[in-house]
Specification:
By secondary structure, this protein is α+β, with helices and mostly antiparallel strands. The protein has 2 domains: 137 residues, Thiol Ester Dehydrase, Chain A; 116 residues, Hotdog Thioesterase (Thiol Ester Dehydrase, Chain A, Roll). Helices cover 15% and strands 33% of the residues. The chain has 5 helices and 10 strands. The chain has a 10-stranded antiparallel β-sheet with strand order 1-3-4-5-2-7-10-9-8-6. Strand 3 and strand 4 form a beta hairpin. The protein is globular, with a radius of gyration of 18 Å.
Length: 284
């Protein structure tokens, strides 16, 4: 069936329960490159283990739900456009969480121009009901323009200054980085199989966008929070270009008001912006 905006916006929350262990927390951190720096041992070692805040993106993850026929989405033409995580409390290093995902908005850009869909997932501690994180994702539905949804302009992403950044940090990725990250739940073969990458007109498998996002989160913790990742409160960004495993990701920050900063990330090897319109909130 074709995409029906009224139907999608009226759906009840999609609920997922997710039990995870300390091993899963450490595996996620390794997947986004933590551990090489001694200051990040706390994210990959069981003694005094701390969960990286960007791990919220994989907790109670609903999977590639756009592929399911009841949603009527041309899933083969879906692109992950933007990502936002707001932290309300420190993530437990182990336990069970409940995720409730709703479709918040659909913007119809017109036939042949696609549509924008924003989904929101609230992640709660299953035992206490405490709200841990709000995870928003904007998807570009390239094949679903002209669906009849609202045509109002989407919210504008955070601007990045044209001036020189206040600080930068370059973090390397490993050639097998995507093969580690996928073990946290995203098994899209585009990130592992050279044949699938070739079919997608790519020279090699690419890094998951959310892996790049997690690497940027590590950089923001060091640039803005003296390495204390739990002081990060919000990270928003737009995905603008893929990263190939083995490349170096350079994150630049511009401090704005107290506890707020703009950022972007660049592939050092290709000089291409891979994350744009970045916005972070943090405890000073």
């Amino acid at each position: 069936m074709p995409l029906d905006p009224a139907y999608l916006l009226g759906l009840p929350p999609r609920v997922n329960r997710h039990a995870y262990t300390e091993r899963d927390t450490m595996l996620y951190a390794l997947g986004v490159g933590a551990g090489a720096d001694p200051g990040e041992l706390r994210y990959v070692y069981e003694e005094g283990l701390i969960a990286l805040p960007t791990m919220a993106v994989v907790l109670a993850y609903p999977g590639f739900w756009q592929k399911e026929p009841q949603y009527g989405i041309d899933w083969m033409r879906v692109l992950h456009g933007e990502q936002s995580v707001t932290l309300h409390a420190p993530l437990p290093v182990a336990g069970e969480v409940i995720g409730e995902m709703t479709i918040e908005s659909i913007v119809d850009k017109g036939r042949g121009k696609g549509a924008l869909l924003t989904s929101c997932r609230q992640v709660r501690n299953a035992s206490s009901g405490e709200l841990l994180a709000t995870v928003r994702q904007l998807s570009f539905l390239r094949g679903d323009g002209g669906c009849g949804g609202p045509s109002s302009a989407p919210s504008q992403p955070h601007p990045v200054p044209l001036s020189a950044p206040d600080a930068e940090l370059a973090l390397p990725t490993r050639p097998e980085q995507a093969l580690i990250y996928r073990l946290s739940g995203d098994y899209n073969p585009l990130h592992a199989d050279p044949k699938v990458a070739e079919e997608a007109n790519l020279p090699a498998p690419i890094l998951h966008g959310l892996c790049t996002y997690g690497i940027a989160g590590r950089a923001l913790a060091r640039l803005l929070c003296s390495g204390e990742a739990t002081r990060l409160r919000r990270i928003d960004c737009r995905f603008t270009s893929p990263v190939f495993p083995g490349e170096t990701i350079r994150v630049a920050v511009w401090r704005e008001a107290a506890g707020r900063a703009a950022f972007h990330a660049v592939s050092d090897e290709r000089g291409v912006v891979v994350l744009s319109n970045g916005y972070a909130e943090f405890e000073e």
